[in-house]
Design goal:
Blueprint lengths: L19 H12 L6 H20 L2 H17 L3 H13 L4 H17 L3 H17 L3 H17 L3 H11 L11 H13 L4 H9 L2 H7 L5 H9 L3 H17 L7 H18 L3 E3 H8 L3 H13 L5 E4 L4 E4 L4 H28 L1
Antiparallel strand pairs: 1-3, 2-3
């Protein structure tokens, strides 16, 4: 599984992916530090001395570097609050927009490490404001990956897919996860958000994705079997992908939701080819039992996810796709009624 190799200490190595056990081992290693230990007190004293010396004798660049070194040390010993305080203090000693952006990236790494998505959101907004003052394309592209990860972790899969796709050819954000993980996230988010034509152009035929796809277990089968309508192979790969998603710290909280969305997409694609189809034929196509398909379809129909109905007596599934013009007409009527009610309420207030 290509789990996120996000570390609180700044830049990880390039393309080597961390297994889940390695990832949590590193977390535990950081947590072993005691911020009140004698060794840490001694190290902090040295850093304070370097800061004092830089402020008295050196220039702005050296002062910035001295304060940053202390902030990174707090990150290393997993003292979140002091690290954030020191990063803000370092920002006050920083003039360059690029250096301020780097401080935001350090804060984002720390926020993702602690799954503090409120802090992530605030710093993404802060980074965008900094870019209005200037900033290079490399940092802008890095921010897309951070924002895409935030969107995915907060269940905004549509925006996450768009940001990940934009980042494929410019990816340099190895400090939060390797390139293979970006492809993993891109395929997973795209398959439930893009239409079939867009998925073909941006994902299935994308050279950058094709070079990595085979390195990630089950991912190639998962994507290609879905696109090629090989539903039995898709369900087989789907089971393997489910185990990988369970191991991902950002996708696991949305595991049940994502599983439902994937099944909705694949059932909709299958039924789109038929006006009616027997439940038995559908079960055979997916390599599952008739009872399983019956229960699955009943659940999704009741939730309004699938536009079809089951004739239990005949054992047939009949599709009833909504007419787009009729749907728009009904929405217009509903909005019109809502507007009239608001106007009536307003008129009563004016009369008073």
């Amino acid at each position: 599984m290509y789990s996120s190799s996000l570390l609180p200490l700044s830049v990880a190595s390039s393309s080597a992916s961390l297994l889940p056990n390695d990832f949590f081992t590193r977390i535990s290693q950081f947590m072993l530090f005691d911020s009140s230990s004698a060794d840490n007190e001694e190290e902090l004293k040295k850093l304070d001395e370097k800061i004092a010396y830089a402020e008295e004798n050196l220039g702005e660049s050296e002062v910035h570097e001295a304060h940053l070194a202390k902030a990174l040390y707090f990150i290393r010993i997993s003292d979140k609050e002091k690290a954030l305080e020191q990063l803000l203090l370092t920002e006050g000693k920083t003039i360059s927009v690029s250096q301020k952006m780097d401080l935001v990236f350090y804060t984002l790494q720390l926020a993702f490490f602690y799954m503090d998505f409120d802090l992530v959101s605030k710093n993404i907004d802060k980074a965008k404001k900094l870019f209005e003052e200037g900033g290079d394309w490399e940092r802008k592209n890095r921010l897309k990956v951070y924002e895409g990860l935030y969107c995915m972790a907060t269940r905004n899969f549509n925006k996450a897919a768009s940001l990940f796709l934009d980042s494929i050819s410019t990816f340099t954000t190895y400090e939060i996860f390797p390139y293979e993980t970006l492809i993993f996230y891109t395929v997973l988010t795209s398959i439930i958000t893009l239409d079939r034509v867009s998925l073909k152009q941006k994902v299935v035929d994308a050279p950058e994705i094709l070079t990595v796809l085979g390195k990630i277990p089950f991912l190639s089968e998962f994507l290609n079997s879905w696109y090629e309508c090989q539903y039995k192979a898709f369900f087989s790969a789907f089971a393997g992908m489910a185990e990988q998603i369970k191991l991902d710290r950002y996708l696991y909280p949305h595991f049940r939701f994502y599983m439902r969305e994937v099944r909705t997409v694949v059932y909709s694609q299958f039924l789109e080819s038929y006006k009616s189809v027997t439940v038995e034929a559908m079960a055979k196509a997916f390599g599952v039992s008739v009872d399983f398909i019956d229960q699955e379809l009943s659940r999704f129909i009741a939730a309004g996810k699938l536009h079809c109905k089951i004739d239990k007596v005949a054992g047939v599934v009949e599709t009833n796709r909504p007419d787009a013009k009729n749907t728009l007409y009904q929405a217009t009527i509903k909005q019109g009624d809502f507007l009239l009610n608001r106007i009536q309420k307003l008129s009563r207030v004016i009369d008073l």
